[in-house]
Design a protein that fits this description.
single chain, alpha/beta, TIM Barrel, uronate isomerase, domain 2, chain A, 2 domains, four-stranded parallel sheet, three-stranded parallel sheet, 19 helices, 9 strands, globular
């Protein structure tokens, strides 16, 4: 039997039936990822397996560094085959790490390669995969078609031109591709150099002269509207914690803005007030346009100064933070709720110590307008592995309504990450199959099968309306 066989991770008979009859063939609704809009617009063709498999994948880079692989073979300019070979040497050491499962599922589902990944099999894997990549159907669009990806939400800075998204709209793809508004850089007033460079970019893309906090916010709202016209229906915010202050005046915001524009870094309290004002404004704009607000909370980013200085962000040197979360999160959501402008919101937690607090928090702000208006999002980043997925599902089940969950996403920069949806589906079906065997849910495949189908696709389709 091959490692990735048809009942992989399905450890009981009900699980096998739930997966094969109710989940396996469902399409994918990938409402949050980091795929390149340019690659999508250009229908990128990949020259080799190293390019499509290792490029931008910080999960793999972290494992390779831990295995003693030099940086040149992770993020440097080494020969593509040498990079691939270094990864193949690493994979056998990744047993019990989700990378071991993901990498083998990717080879099997994308390239129909059953070989175990190791140094001995590397030449055959390289040859077979590269032969497939030379076929017309293995372009970016062909991969989306292969995995029945119906929706993609990319992650885009407000200063991005959206030109690639406008091109994608004209291609007639079966996959709907939309931008997502991520204004994190608008809040970095503790870093005047970075903030002022970003404001200058915002002036250009918004065609707005920014001379004050008021005009800054007007330019940001203008971009929000332009994103909406390009199909965006979600914002995304990657924060250590949710920002909130009890009160801040327009005069204080103008003073902070002027000071930072002159090159003086905002204090911690000033940054909190400024960031809250931006978050509140975006939340209100989202509500007015029917958008969803995503809050990715808890990452401690850019820990390694040496690599950050050399390579920049998103290179595998982030980790799980230990930040207080619930008080300011509650006050932020309550602020928007009291004003009658709380949008649909998804809370993603990166520290599973907060699973139950987050699962409890969403119940405080449901308002009966739609099912599951406030969501506890799927296991994210360091928690999108088997234990993390199960823990998130259990917390949501115990304190909320699992049946209204909008399901999994890739949160990935790689076109080969779509088998991670299969990974999630198998874990979900196995969990529910165990419940059926234990008598904790009815032995009713119509009932439990409907739950599976809702979580896999239907809930997301109803919730986002993309």
């Amino acid at each position: 039997m091959t490692f990735i066989h048809k009942d992989f991770l399905l450890l009981n008979e009900p699980a096998k039936r739930l997966y094969h009859e109710y989940s396996r063939d469902e399409p994918i609704y990938d409402y949050h990822c980091h795929l390149s809009p340019q690659d999508l617009a250009n229908n990128r063709r990949f020259e080799n397996l190293s390019e499509i498999w290792l490029e931008g994948d910080h999960y793999k880079w972290r494992a390779m560094r831990s295995n003693g692989i030099s940086e040149d073979l992770c993020t440097g300019n080494a020969d593509p085959y040498e990079k691939f070979l270094a990864f193949c040497k690493t994979v056998p050491h990744s047993l019990r790490n989700p990378l071991y499962h993901w990498s083998h599922i990717e080879l099997k589902r994308v390239f129909d390669i059953d070989l175990l990944i190791n140094e001995s099999n590397a030449p055959a894997i390289w040859e077979q995969a590269n032969a497939k990549l030379a076929e017309p159907s293995f372009c970016a669009h062909g991969i989306l078609e292969k995995f029945k990806v119906k929706v993609i939400g990319t992650t885009d800075d407000p200063t991005d031109s959206l030109e690639h998204h406008l091109r994608i709209k004209k291609l007639g793809l079966d996959t709907t591709v939309v931008p997502t508004f991520r204004p994190d850089k608008s809040m970095q007033v503790d870093n005047p150099e970075a903030f002022n460079q970003w404001v200058e970019s915002l002036e250009v893309t918004s065609n707005t002269q920014i001379v004050s906090y008021r005009t800054f916010l007007e330019a940001l709202e203008k971009r929000h509207c332009e994103f909406h016209n390009a199909g965006a229906r979600l914002s995304d915010h990657g924060l250590e914690h949710c920002h909130y202050v009890e009160r801040v005046s327009q005069a204080e915001l103008e003073s902070i803005f002027r000071s930072v524009r002159r090159g003086k870094a905002a204090s911690a309290d000033e940054k909190e007030a400024f960031a809250f004002s931006i978050m509140r404004a975006v939340g209100e704009w989202n509500f007015e346009k029917g958008w969803t607000m995503q809050l990715h909370l808890g990452a401690q980013r850019n820990n390694n100064t040496r690599l950050y200085s050399k390579l920049g962000p998103d290179i595998g040197c982030d980790s799980i933070g230990d930040f207080p979360q619930t008080f300011k999160l509650s006050r932020f959501l309550d602020c928007l709720d009291r004003s009658g402008k709380l949008p649909k919101t998804i809370l993603y937690n990166l520290n599973d110590n907060n699973n139950y607090p987050f699962a409890a928090m969403i119940g405080n702000f449901q308002d009966g307008s739609i099912p599951g208006k406030i969501q506890f999002g799927s296991g994210w980043w360091f928690l999108d592995q088997k234990d993390g997925i199960i823990n998130q599902l259990n917390a949501l089940s115990q304190l909320g309504l699992l049946s209204r969950f909008v399901g999994m996403l890739t949160d990935s920069r790689s076109f080969l990450s779509y088998p991670r949806h299969e990974y999630f589906r198998r874990i979900l079906c196995n969990l529910l199959g165990e419940d059926m065997i234990n008598g904790e849910v009815p032995d009713d495949f119509d009932l439990i099968g409907d739950l599976v189908k809702r979580i896999r696709y239907l809930n997301a389709a109803d919730y986002f309306e993309l």
